[in-house]
Design goal:
CATH topology of the largest domain: Alpha-Beta Plaits
Radius of gyration: 33 Å
Strand order of the largest sheet: 2-3-1-4-5
Strand content: 5-15%
CATH superfamily of the largest domain: Ribosomal protein L10, N-terminal RNA-binding domain
Largest sheet: 5 strands, antiparallel
Order of helices and strands: HEHEHEHEEHH
Number of helices: 6
CATH class of the largest domain: Alpha Beta
Number of domains: 2
Shape: rod-shaped
Structural class: alpha+beta
Helix content: 55-70%
Distance between the termini: 124 Å
Length: about 190
């Protein structure tokens, strides 16, 4: 490949890295074109890209740049680049992408997660798999709301029961007074 082509590829790759907020490195040895297309289509839904680049160019670019304002040291990922490597990059949170990659891995054994780089720094493949096993953000928020709402619901139910019992007592007192008035009227009418 001509050095001009490599420079263009490196510049384009550097621009993509600078716009990204995370990077996940995978090995895709013997992954077919149809499977690769399926993976890329799934990643497109999460606004991510799956890039396959020459290892030498990828290492060179990883050592020379960091995403915009994140201060991530991309050179740490250079050690993960070896063999048939695919780079997943994205701008949003990596949780959903981790779930997608792990799910895809289960049905396609030729895809292997090697590690990645998040805002926290270099992460292992095990960390990415653990991240994929966590509930979604919406589920976690619903659990927090439910936990915060539980004491209030309990208080409302308790007060509701107190009010119901109070109304029952008032109704019984009214009935007792009404029967006492009725008895007095009968006694007064018989005299």
């Amino acid at each position: 490949m001509a050095s001009y082509d490599k420079e263009l590829m490196a510049k384009e790759l550097k621009d993509k890295f600078q716009d990204s907020s995370f990077l996940i490195v995978t090995s895709f040895n013997k992954l077919g074109a149809i499977d690769m297309h399926e993976l890329r289509r799934g990643l497109d839904l999460h606004s991510c890209e799956y890039l396959v680049v020459k290892n030498r160019v990828a290492r060179l670019v990883l050592k020379s740049c960091s995403p915009a304002g994140k201060g991530m040291d991309l050179s740490k990922c250079a050690g993960l680049i070896d063999g048939s490597v695919g780079l997943t990059i994205g701008k949003q949170s990596p949780e959903d992408v981790s779930k997608l990659l792990v799910k895809f891995m289960k049905s396609h054994e030729s895809l292997v997660i090697r590690g990645g780089l998040f805002e926290e720094g270099l992460v292992s493949a095990g960390y990415i798999k653990e991240l994929a096993s966590l509930p979604t953000r919406d589920v976690l928020l619903a659990n927090v709301v439910r936990a915060l709402n539980a004491p209030i619901t309990s208080l409302v139910n308790t007060l509701d029961q107190v009010i119901k019992k109070f109304v029952i007592v008032i109704d019984k007192v009214r009935e007792k007074i009404a029967t006492a008035d009725g008895a007095e009227k009968k006694e007064g009418g018989t005299k």
